[in-house]
Task: inverse folding
């Protein structure tokens, strides 16, 4: 029950304590937040200067129309486990995030990972801007009776959680769809406990080149030749999921691309120590399913990282040119 976890929540407007009942009420500023379909609506806008570009509304509108990644028609808790564990990343998380851990996912989309991680007795908060995506996650939670996952609407720039609340903060495929990924990283890393971990998945500057090329082909041919995308070519997804993948990869209103070195500088500024990355930041050290995600690794030097990053041009295209970085907050 969310009521039992009220102590880690806070008002996204003023940071005050929230009282949780049929609505959520701030004891400092008296603002009242509604709950729709069991999902607390704790979204708060950025309140930046008018000159500053803010893509939040455009991104929210995009995902309200096409929630991502969506579920296959016959997904159940068992099929979610089976599918998730075929991917290296979800399998490693499931094997290595201990039972009892309190996990926050920022930008959970339709909530697959949050639902999946909650199955093995972890408490997981799945948060996103998009109510339609959260609704799909909540429906899956309810139909599979997953009691340890909670879905909440939240803008990651204006968190509804107190700082230093989580053992692990995950934001996978999200910050590159925000106006200011570095600021976003600073905001979510504050939510990790001292000694806790922060994990971000981002589009890579070189890893994304092949996807960029395909986008050009689609845009100039009226979306013919979609078979150039291996995920669309090989099938394995139902219609709604295929559509969600296609628009997310090729029709998105906003995306940015990043490098390992750049994220290391975000880590430095936020007081986060580098722990690991996928792919590894030094060459010739492929990640295997027996490797430890949360055991500190050497980030390598600029030449080693350049070798890894250049090789991503050729091998990053299936997942859209993605890389994952994990850091640990200083104690
Ligand atoms: C590509 S989807 C990734 C979903 C999920 N993490 C996954 O890996 O499948 C990006 C998600 O980030 C969310 N998002 C973008 N900006 C956000 C923000 N400022 N606060 C919260 N969520 C945001 C979007 O609504 C969308 O659901
Ligand atoms: Zn308040």
Result:
């Amino acid at each position: 029950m969310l009521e039992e976890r009220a102590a880690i929540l806070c008002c996204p407007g003023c940071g005050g304590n929230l009282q949780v009942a049929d609505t959520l009420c701030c004891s400092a500023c008296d603002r009242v937040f509604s709950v729709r379909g069991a999902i607390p609506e704790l979204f708060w806008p950025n309140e930046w200067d008018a000159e500053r570009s803010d893509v939040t509304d455009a991104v929210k509108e995009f995902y309200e129309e096409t929630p991502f990644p969506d579920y296959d028609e016959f997904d159940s808790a068992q099929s979610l486990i089976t599918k998730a564990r075929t991917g290296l990343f979800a399998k490693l998380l499931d094997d290595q995030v201990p039972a009892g851990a309190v996990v926050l996912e920022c930008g959970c989309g339709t909530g697959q990972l949050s639902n999946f991680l909650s199955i093995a007795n972890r408490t997981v908060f799945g948060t996103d801007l998009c109510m339609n995506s959260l609704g799909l996650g909540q429906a899956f939670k309810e139909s599979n009776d997953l009691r340890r996952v909670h879905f909440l609407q939240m803008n990651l720039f204006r968190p509804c959680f107190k700082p230093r609340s989580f053992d692990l903060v995950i934001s996978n495929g999200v910050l590159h769809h925000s106006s200011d990924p570095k600021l976003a990283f600073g905001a979510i890393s504050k939510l990790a406990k001292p000694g806790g971990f922060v994990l971000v998945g981002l589009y890579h500057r070189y890893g994304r080149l092949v996807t960029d090329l395909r986008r050009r082909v689609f845009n100039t041919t009226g979306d013919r030749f979609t078979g150039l995308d291996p995920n669309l070519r090989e099938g394995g997804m139902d219609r709604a999921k295929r559509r969600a993948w296609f628009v997310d990869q090729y029709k998105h209103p906003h995306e940015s691309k990043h490098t390992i070195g750049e994220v290391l500088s975000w880590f430095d500024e936020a007081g986060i120590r580098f722990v690991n990355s996928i792919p590894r930041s030094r060459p010739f050290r492929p990640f295997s399913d027996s490797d430890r995600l949360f055991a500190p690794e050497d980030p390598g030097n600029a030449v080693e990282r350049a070798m890894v990053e250049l090789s991503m041009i050729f091998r990053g295209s299936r997942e859209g040119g993605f890389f994952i970085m994990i850091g640990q907050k200083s104690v």
